[in-house]
Amino acid sequence: MALVVVGGVPAELEAREDSGPQSAATPRPATGTTPSISPDDPIQLRDAVAYQISMGRSLEVTCDQIQRHSPGIAGSNSPPLASLVTATYEDLTATPPPPPQRPRAMALIGDRYHHPGYIRPPLEAVCQKVGVASVFIYDVRLLNKTILRDYDLLIVLRDGMLWPSPTEDDEFGKQRVFWLTPDQEVAIASYVSHGGAYLALHNATALKGLNDTDSLYSQVLGATYAGHGKVDECYRVRVTEPGHPVAQHVNDYTITDERHWPTLHVQDAQVFLEAVCTDRRSIHGFTRLYGQGRVCYLANGHHRGALEAQPVQQLLENAIRWCLKGPGAE
Predict the structure, then answer these.
(1) How far apart are CA 330 and CA 328, in angstroms?
(2) Is the pLDDT of residue 317 over 90?
(3) For residues 198 and 186, what is the distance between their CA atoms, to the nearest angstrom?
(4) What angle do CA 10, 253, 27 make, to 5 degrees?
């Protein structure tokens, strides 16, 4: 049986590290900039536009930012870049049709610090492996009760901040907007409580904010954001409960990633992973029930290499099966 957390956080696990290299309230510099793109590469174009959308950018701003980082394209024989960006933007901000087959997963991915271009392929691969049809969205406005009705699983790898206003000398700007609305919180809570599944990854603990303030979202997840380490920290992940369904076929592993340390606020969380870095330990994976639905949190996800690592792919596969109450999920 997995560890049942009583009274918040197990005493042996460190949930908050005041001496950590990153502040929980101060956003860190971005890990990359908008790449140059080719109009002949629709995936690259999609990901570049998706990145701008994930930061809450308008079509005008998106076109401007991509043109700034795509020298030489305007003089090619391809359609004007602005028309390609516009068509892609309109497609990615429209409500996608649900796949015909079930089960279905909708994944909301990407933010300033996490380019959707590296997130999507590893998640697509694991969804395909377990036979789950996946749809990816980048526009936070699409997260609502209507769209959730068509899906069996919600996956989120992003935070709660938008950066809609870049400037001439700062491609991210200083305007930071927290986007999760009360209606969206109610939509998530209602979805899960009525049997929907939620897989929260990496920084999804920060969907509501960068603190431990109580909210409806934190009540669903059972945890809040409390900080993270360096973006390329090498640390050990221990399987603390090998019998947990999400930990099946997973051994302790070493990984280079950005280590997050969430704070738990519920008594029913079953912790099955912990991260160990020198003398610091933190919660790295847990599950819980919320109403009739299932919730799972996995902390890895800052780098594509981390998401594609064999132990993490196995954890994702197990987590999806558990969330959807598949074989061996009990």
Answers:
(1) 6
(2) yes
(3) 14
(4) 65
